[in-house]
Amino acid sequence: MGIRYFPTGNEMISIPKLNEATGGIEDVTFLHMGYKGLVELRGGVDISLMEPFVEQDDQPAPLSSLEWDRLQFWVPHFSGQAGHIRVEGTVLTPIEERGFLYRMELTNMDSAPHAIVCGLQGCWNSAWHCVNEDKQIEGTMHCFESGWNGSLIFDMRCGVPLFCFAPMPEDSSCVSTWEQSDAGVCYRLAHSYTLGPRQRRTVTVYWGFGMEEVSAATSAKEMLRRGYPYEEAQTLLWLRERTLWLEDDALRRFYNTNLFFCLFFSTGITLDTEELVLVTSRSPRYYVSAAYWDRDSLLWSFPAILDVDRGLARRMLEYVFGRQRRNIGIHSRFIDGTVLEPGFELDELMAPALSLGRYVEATGDLTLVDEREVRRGLEDILQKLERQRHPHTALYSTFLQPTDDEIVYPYLTYDNVLVWKGLTILAKLLGREELTQQAQQVKQAIWDNCVMEQNEKRYFAWSIDLDGRHDVYDEPPGSLQLLPYWGFCDAGDPVYRNTVDMIRSPGYRYSFAGFPFGEIGCPHAPHPWLLSVANSLLCGRVKHSTGILKNATMDNGIACESIDETTGECTTGEAFATCAGFVCHALRTAMGGTAHAE
Description:
By secondary structure, the protein is α+β, with helices and mostly antiparallel strands. The chain has two domains: 8-240, Beta-galactosidase, Chain A, domain 5 (Distorted Sandwich); 249-591, Glycosyltransferase, CATH 1.50.10. 31% of the residues lie in helices and 28% in strands. It is built from 13 helices and 30 strands. The strands form nine sheets. It has an eight-stranded antiparallel β-sheet. A five-stranded antiparallel β-sheet has the order 6-5-11-18-17, with no helix packed on it. A hairpin with a 6-residue loop joins β29 (562-563) and β30. The longest helix is centred in the middle third of the chain and has 18 residues, at 346-363. It is elongated.
């Protein structure tokens, strides 16, 4: 068992690696439009970026036996022991603030008084640029006392300041020390007290972020002025308003924690331009972090966010039809809309239309459809779609499959179902009857060409070439199991049932049938996928799927790409934020719940 983390964050600051064993924060990240991705601050080899410490009577008192929970399913909170001192810790990333705070509450459990020194210490070792791959930023790191307000300042300069962060202890008697060496900038924020029997003290350090020292220091000062009770209350209220109540404790915990992980790790506000952007994950632990995919953001995280925050859902679509519009349908892009990985994907081309239709159906808000950029985007989608049409058959080709791997045959059944659904939506939104007819032609072409027969049983092929060849296959990121979910056929349709039976059969290589955590995988990650669990929830396998969610460890309770079929531990794709969203949406749909305050 490796290191386990409790990720947390808000709209602007992410803490992907809060160490479960030590309470130390190993890294902090934020999005940066100018650098097209994520900036990560890392600690040293032997000491975290920041971690709590306690000394009792001039002797180190290491924290031990940490037990964790989350306030309102998101805010990490631990309790543990340091000598005779009981320590409780909270890492709060307040809503709508440019920073976070680390709070410690210390109680002397002994019958004698003790001299206590406590606080935060750490080492800022490096800064990294993260978009799929991580590269260390070459620049100079500085630490100094601000001449503006006397607070400690850390900044990174690449000719001019690139970013800055600043701690501000709540107690003005805190002693701040630091030194700079080859290991980085190491510091210590120490508070000294004498605690009598059962006496309690709290220590809170506010960390602000900005482009330079004044903006960073005032971000911390803003939170300090408001105080911990205010910041906690506002944040917990925001979380509570989006919380879903489920009767089952394990499912309630899974849903809400993963929902908030999706909200704060698949969307974010850039530090430099303060724009909302969408990404696969704001955690560098995910192997393709901090980049944009139409499919991931719109087919997976968008439905979950629309379930709980329609205002944010609208802003997501505005970003898609704004910065991302010109390259809709291209494999992956940077957060500024430029191409990261080329390659056409039909499911990604249709994702904006499908999500716009979902938004209008849920909200009744048609004003977005009339915006110029949205209209232009929809026309772009239709023009790009037409270029993929077979000359004589109403089927549309793709170059990459939903896993982003190259196709076997160019006409995917699932992708063409998305085309049918998208054209049906656009016909209504744009008032164009010819799109209705076009959608009907696609549906008929799927039934005529993508249905095969074997042993007197008809089934949907995964892909075809229109020259007689096809394959029997399935991919969790775009599964044939979802055909009823998209409204293409009934769940009881015999062709559909035969298809599901084939890909769930023990004879199918990637079914993992009979294993404790049996769900469909694929060569991209040859283990059961969490997206497949979501697919199963949406097609009626509720008891089976909820059993997996309740018993699989995954990434310490956070959705990942795939899990071990025997143990339920994460095997690939830690911190998969958009996947977390789709599993939440599927669970919510299957359970028929509504969000409300507890």
